Amino acid sequence: MKDYHINVFYSEEDKGYIADIPDLKHCSAFGDTPEEALTEVLKAKEAWLAAAKKNRKPIPEPSYHPLIYKVA
Question: Is it the case that residue 34 has pLDDT exceeding 80?
Answer without folding.
Answer: yes
